[in-house]
Amino acid sequence: MSCYVPYVVSTKPDVTDAFQLARQWFLAGRRIDMQELAAELKVGRATLFRWVGNREQLLGEVIWSITERTFDRHNRAVGGSGGARIAEVVGTYVRTVNNDGPFRAFLRREPERALRLLTTKASLVQRRTIAAVESMLTEEIDRGALEPPLPVHDLAYLIVRIAESFIYTDIISGEEPDADKAREAVAALLR
Which residue numbers delimit the QsdR TetR regulatory C-terminal domain (predicted)? Predict the structure, then answer.
């Protein structure tokens, strides 16, 4: 999931610099602290908050930027069609997330915040992931490769919750995250 490229802050920083620097810190496994971020950007905290919102909003945007790129990469790379293809995309995505060092570090360091940011109805990451899965389902339906067992939005929501179950298993139940189980569960749902 991670793709670390050092970011150099411009001489007159702006919202893009704040986002890119926060993203760089996240990918390096560093905790995003708003006071430290403002200091490194050489701006006041009020300016930083005006640019990016609060810490949770910034973290959500940073995590979504990484999630979107990873999900899209897997969606383009996986062949096949129908439910089997969707199950493979989801399983591959879950495996990537489960093996991502900076993401796992964030989960270990801030488990309650991570679950709130990533798995609740207020989560922009979850909303956008559901929309991405909904789009993928619609493509398969339009090609005639999938007959959905539920309305598309409900199905996308359920698939995302299945993926979350096998990404956050260690936090929720103490078991090891398992991408193969996520793939198998989605495949069974879409048969």
Answer: 81-191
CB 89 within 8 A of CB 74: yes
**Inter-residue contact 71 to 93 (CB < 8 Å):** yes
User: Is the CB of residue 101 less than 8 Å from the CB of residue 29?
Assistant: yes
- Reduced to 3 states (helix: H, G, I; strand: E, B; else coil), residue 174 is coil
> For residue 122, what is the DSSP state?
T
Per-residue pLDDT tens over the stretch 15-60: 999 999 999 999 999 999 999 999 999 999 999 999 999 999 999 9
Angle CA(178)–CA(91)–CA(2) in degrees, nearest 5?
Answer: 85
Mean pLDDT of 97-118: 93
pTM exceeding the 0.85 threshold for the entire prediction: yes
Q: What is the dihedral of CA 109, 6, 35, 32, to 10 degrees?
A: -20
